[in-house]
Amino acid sequence: MIFIKTKWGKLAYTSKGDGYDVFLIFHGFGQSHEDMLPFESLLNEHRRFIFIDVFYHGRSAWRDPNLSLSKSIWKEIISELMRKEEFSEFHLIGYSMGGKFSLITFELFPEKVKSLKLLAPDGIKTGLWYSLGTYPGFLHQSFKRVVFKPKLFFNIIKGMEQVGLSESSLTKFVKNEMKTRSKRAQVYLTWRVFGGFQPQLGTIITAIRNRKTPIKLYVGEYDKMITGENLKRFSSKIPHLELITLPVGHGKLIEETVKHILKQT
């Protein structure tokens, strides 16, 4: 792993390939860069893939949980990555939470981005974990109690599923992401630090349209978390955007997207 050390913490990443065409690749919540490594099969002599661990994931570390990640901080970190790895333009690939990081990176560097591939991206229709993080600060103590004393929370989730208020796939996702103390702490810290880190979709749509930046959205046909319908308000405003629906759920979308791209090349 390679590290960018800053006063806010350290960002970990790994670089694959030696080509001039650079791709920044961001994973989803609860994952690390390793979950995006299926994209390595798309490498060729012209490409270089930089797989990034988002803060509180993998080997990246955020120094102060009371300090929110801001766009100005993120811009400095990506600028340092560009200097360190010696590139000036790049493509973006992001899955789920990583889609939100891709959108914000585009918002900050629209003139530098050559294309976007977003897989069931968060940040367009905001997911549960991140919308909770934008609630008033006094509610964070309630979230903290869920993290460290989760029994009541799990009983509520079970009851919602039994009366049909929660899809089984969503319930499974929530239970998986909250099943251990360390995972629950990760959820809580992500709420605190990333809660206000949201893309300005109007600005992004305008920039993509004006610059005609190539953009593809990949969604799973059986994904109950982020669907093509959820993304329609965004995608309908970008005439050249390509929306691709693949026959999988949320958890299998990375591998299926790579297979789809390989078939197209």
Kindly describe this structure.
- The chain is of the alpha/beta class and 265 residues long.
- It has 2 domains: 2-126 and 198-264, Alpha/Beta hydrolase fold, catalytic domain (Rossmann fold); 131-191, no CATH class.
- Helix content is 41%, strand content 20%.
- The chain contains 10 helices and 9 strands.
- The chain has helices spanning 71-85, 97-108, 128-132, 140-148, 151-162, 168-177, 181-194, 201-211, 228-235, 253-264; strands at 2-6, 9-16, 21-26, 47-53, 61-62, 90-95, 113-119, 215-220, 242-246.
- Helix 2 (97-108) crosses helix 8.
- The radius of gyration is 18 Å and the shape is globular.
- It starts with a strand and ends with a helix.
Alpha-carbon distance between the two ends: 30 Å
Q: Could you spell the SSE succession in H and E letters?
A: EEEEEHEHEHHHHHHEHEH
Secondary structure tally: strands: 9
Helix content: 40-55%
Q: What shape does the CA trace take? A: globular
Q: Regarding CATH, which class of the largest domain?
A: Alpha Beta
Summarize model confidence as the mean pLDDT: 86
Determine the CATH topology of the largest domain: Rossmann fold
Rg, Cα atoms, Å: 18 Å
* Beta fraction: 15-25%
Poorly predicted ranges (pLDDT <50, ≥5 residues)? 129-136
